[in-house]
Amino acid sequence: MMTFVPAGKFVMGDLKQVGQSYEHPAHEVTFSEAFHIGKFPITFNEYDRYSKATGQTPVSDYHWGRNDRPIINVNLDDARAYASWLSAETGYTYRLPSEAEWEYAARAGANSIYPWGNDIGKNNANCNGCGSIWDGNKTAPVGQFPANAWGLHDMQGNTWDLTEDCWNFNYRNAPTNGSPWKTGDCIRGVIRGGSLGDTPQDLRLSTRLRNYSATRTVIIGFRLVREL
Predict the structure, then answer these.
(1) At CB < 8 A and 24+ separation, what contacts does 108-111 make?
(2) How far apart are the first and last CA of the chain?
(3) Closest to 114 measured CA to CA, from 153, 160, 148
(4) Gap between the Cα atoms of 32 and 26, Å rounded
(5) What pLDDT, in 10s, does the model give residues 100-139?
(6) CA-to-CA distance for 171 and 156, rounded, in angstroms?
(7) What are phi and psi for residue 44, nearest 5 degrees?
(8) Distances (CA, A) of 162 to 15, 52, 129, 197
(9) pTM of the predicted structure, to 2 decimals
């Protein structure tokens, strides 16, 4: 299920001066074209259909459950392969979001620390200290928490989202047109959004971490963009 994201511009990065040096400098990014992004992360239901269709061994759910829970234990190549398969199946172009697309969609016009305001609140997400019944224990089925202003769920917490960007230690010379940053440390990529095991600090809209692109873990999944 996809959600429309309009063309426009926003200021990307740590707007509240509460983050890390690699969330700076805050800079304006302009999107000349709209796009669609997944309302939810890709789920086990969706990924298991792909695994069955392509004859692959089902991905481990770490005994947390499958169905509507977000896919875990996948790496960058797995996510790209799924997007290519889905594109061929549907005739649309699916791909991972750029880091800028991810933050633009997650903010949904907000300049606060979180999509819902400057405090973590209670039961807005699944993290270590978010006040949900799943906190730090296991992933929640998608869509259990309030959507942001553009109708997107689970941009914060539950699982980190993979992006197409290579890792860079700051935003100097970052693309300003919303495209992925394909230079830098490309052995490692950028993940966004935080996870069930992270503290509220890591769920901030500007939080970004690096991750070895070949790594598969129980706290990283992905959602896709569909080009118009």
Answers:
(1) 108/148, 108/149, 108/150, 108/152, 109/10, 109/149, 109/150, 110/148, 110/149, 110/205, 111/11, 111/15
(2) 14
(3) 148
(4) 19
(5) 999 999 999 999 999 999 999 999 999 999 999 999 999 9
(6) 21
(7) -60, -40
(8) 22, 23, 23, 16
(9) 0.98
117 burial class (0-12, 13-18, 19+ CB within 10 angstroms)?
A: exposed
Alpha carbon distance 182, 1 (integer Å):
28
Task: Output the pLDDT for position 222.
Answer: 98
Query: Cα 190 to the chain's mean position, in Å?
Result: 10
Tokens 């000349």 locate to 32
Strands 160-167, 220-221: parallel, antiparallel or unpaired by DSSP?
parallel
Cβ atoms of residues 203 and 223 within 8 Å = no
CA 123 from chain center: how many Å?
A: 19
Residue-wise pLDDT for 142-175, tens only, equals 999 999 999 999 999 999 999 999 999 999 999 9
Residue-wise pLDDT tens digits, 203-221: 999 999 999 999 999 999 9
Task: Output the CATH code of domain 2-227.
Answer: 3.90.1580.10
Both tokens of residue 162?
């993979």
